[in-house]
Amino acid sequence: MKKKGFFICVEGLDGCGKTTQARLLVRKLKENYAAVYTAEPSNGKVGRFIKKYCLHNKKRLSSVVESLLFAADRFEHVENVILPAVKRGKLVISDRYLYSSLAYQGATGLNLEWIQKLNEHALHPDLAIFIDVDPEIVIGRLKRKKSVMENLKTQRKVREVYVRFVENGELVNVDGNKSKKEVADEIMTVVLGFLEKAC
Ligand code: TMP
Predict the structure, then answer these.
(1) What is the mean pLDDT of residues 3-14?
(2) Cross-strand bridge partners of residue 177
(3) With a threshold of 0.85, does the pTM exceed it?
(4) 1: in domain
(5) Is 19 a domain residue?
(6) Whose alpha carbon is nearest atom 10 of ligand 1?
(7) Nearest residue by C-alpha to atom 20 in ligand 1
């Protein structure tokens, strides 16, 4: 691998297995690459604020406020974590990134271009993967509600936005309804294919 690092994000609905898969991917990549795992909301100040006051509230905040907070967290995450690691030649895997804002906040009817504009300082990912699982299945898996976003109506709308980005080629679709191993193998194939072309 050349000195330059790469930035890959993994996206999907709550309960789609994204965190497990992103961690598995990092573990496997580490055999040959300097891979690191990170996630959004981040562990920075704004990210911790979001987890505490945004996601675990009884009621959702306005989607404009959510967008502003997630964009602020992303700015810090890029500046403090992602960009320094990429510059050191690392392969950074982020569990959620910009497409989560487009899908979750966009699903409320907010203008997607406005969300993009708000995030114009965010580093563009070299590869973005969408783990596609049926909303009915993820809701069944989410026995104990962790966030204000976890209901069927929201997850259906969120998926619709993600699918738009799959259709325009920005997100690579991986069928998340298969077994854990099959999903992991498919993600690895996509990532290795990307690295072969890019390195
Ligand atoms: P997770 O830690 O289980 O991935 O959950 C984070 C929640 O935050 C999830 O419901 C999606 C939501 N979210 C947004 O709504 N917008 C964003 O930009 C990000 C990064 C997450």
Answers:
(1) 92
(2) none
(3) yes
(4) no
(5) yes
(6) 149
(7) 40
* 159 contacts 135 by C-beta, under 8 angstroms: yes
pLDDT the model gives residue 199: 85
* Cβ contact 132:191 at 8 Å: no
Q: Where do we find the tokens 């403090």?
A: 80
Long-range contacts of 188-196 (CB under 8 A, 24+ apart): 188/25, 188/28, 190/127, 190/129, 191/8, 191/25, 191/29, 191/127, 191/129, 194/6, 194/8, 194/126, 194/127, 195/1, 195/6, 195/33, 195/91
Q: Whose CA is nearest to atom 9 of ligand 1?
A: 14
Whole-number Å distance between alpha carbons of 106 and 116: 10
Nearest CA to 148 among 27, 78, 57, 73? Answer: 57
Residue-level pLDDT at 145: 67
Which residue type sits at 35? A
The domain in which residue 10 lies consists of 6-198
CATH of the domain at 134: 3.40.50.300
Q: What angle do CA 24, 98, 140 make, to 5 degrees?
A: 55
Binding pocket residue ranges, ligand 1, CB within 6 Å: 14, 40-41, 55, 70, 96, 100-101, 104-105, 147, 149
Write out the two tokens for 176. 């998340």
Taking the CA atoms of 85, 89, 95 and 99 in sequence, report the sign of the dihedral they define. positive
How many domains are there within the chain? Answer: 1
- With contact defined as beta carbons under 8 Å apart, do 50 and 75 qualify? no
